[in-house]
Amino acid sequence: MSKFLQGTMILIIAGLITRVLGFVNRIVVARVIGGEGVGLYMMAMPTLVLAITITQMGLPVAISKLVAEAEAVGDRRKVKKILVVSLTITGMLSIIFFPAMILLAPFLSQTLFTDPRTYYPLIAIAPVVPIIAISSVLRGYFQGKQQMKPYAYSQLLEQIVRISFIAICTKALLPYGIEYAAAGAMISSVIGEFASLLYLLYMFKLKKSVKVRAKFFQYVRSGKHTFTSLMRIALPTTGSRLIGSLSWFLEPIVVANSLSIAGVATTLATKQYGQLTGYALPLLMLPSFITYSLSTSLVPAISEAAAQKQTLLVEHRIQQAMRLSLVTGGLSVVVLYVFAEPLMQLMYGTSEATIFVKVMAPFFLFYYFQGPLQAILQGLDLAKAAMTNSLIGATVKIACIFALATQPNLGIMGAALAIAINTVLVTLLHFATIVKAVSYSVYASEYVKACLSIIAAGAAGYVSFHHTFVMFPLLMRTLAAITVTTIVYLLLLIIFQLIKREELAQIPAIGAFFAKKKRK
């Protein structure tokens, strides 16, 4: 069993559980504080992501890559230097950005977001910056060693702790106002991240092969070369993520002001933005836990293969990632498009955001490719190219939001279309960059077979929901129809050989079956 597929499978299983738990969080928040409260929550979130992106400096990816290379040659001293220098950088940056978030909160809430109530969520989330700064270094370390279990379990723990506190915090603060309840949701996130950090520290102490505290400052002083190596990868990666984070930071500002130009009141604009980014987008992004797991495993796997000049293995990894992204993304598009309305109704108790899901779902097939493609670029030392692609996409998205959302007949739908345009554009640019950099063959027949599987499964799901299971209650009807859709889709994938036996064998139950059969 390859480390790449084994690590990916661990992350996929943990990612599925994490995303389901994350959705429980969102459902609780949505039902307690409603669309307007979710709007306040989602307006504050991009500011946090921007602060974290700057604090991390792209180091998790750089650490993962350099640790993988050091482990390949058994250089423990280099691993220690990587950790010491990384912790020093993130520690210093978090000391700057934690108070900066608190000081800038009044200006951001009153001037840029046009809704002063965002002040309280902004203040509540600020303490998470130094916590994530340290935990991201440890996660990068475990990824580089291709030990995915600590990384995966830390994510699970974070969600479990967050769920334990989410209802308590939001309900306790709701009587004081929606803005305080949104701040309560942020506080539960801080507690969850802190629990995750404690677990990572415990696992690092348990599994570490180097002593970080011994001669710490000596390693800092002699870490110039390590710092340069980290920055060579981290800065372009930061640039790429910074562009994405800055774009997301500007998004609610541009949307709020564009809707204002279109004549939409501030309260309604906040509610509509909450429906798009708090209801529709999380549902569309839910299946990306699979491609995110691929991305996390790809950076060290591609880096190691490239360092050993194994070009055939590099192409094999890319082919695996693209095919798995295609088949998982295809099922996601079918389920989200066909069952958008019942899913929204069951999860949030309202189907108001259904139109966003239906319009954006076909475009999001490209989104499921985007993470793995970016990870491949980083593994091939093409992070600068990924940054350029992200910059082009972000510029086009902001321009499209302003051009489309200001139209009275489009409004918030203009913002949804702009996000879809950005998704398609960046994915195509990433793919074009990879094709130029490495030898890569595109098997058109696989994509044709996948499209046929998507259409057939979608038709089966539609007939099942609207004709076969109409006598069942909504929940049972939806689950039964999704089950039929999934079975039809998986059968077609097996018939068309879009899922290989090697990949099926990584699933514990199926792997045991294959092993038993082989012994016989």
UniProtKB/TrEMBL annotation:
UniProt entry keywords in alphabetical sequence: Cell membrane, Membrane, Transmembrane, Transmembrane helix
GO CC, one annotated term: plasma membrane
Transmembrane segments: 38-61, 82-107, 119-138, 159-178, 184-204, 248-269, 281-301, 321-340, 346-369, 390-406, 412-435, 447-465, 471-496
UniProt subcellular location: Cell membrane
Coiled coil stretches, renumbered: none
One Pfam family matching this protein: Polysacc_synt
Protein name (database record): Stage V sporulation protein B
Organism listed in the record: Parageobacillus thermantarcticus
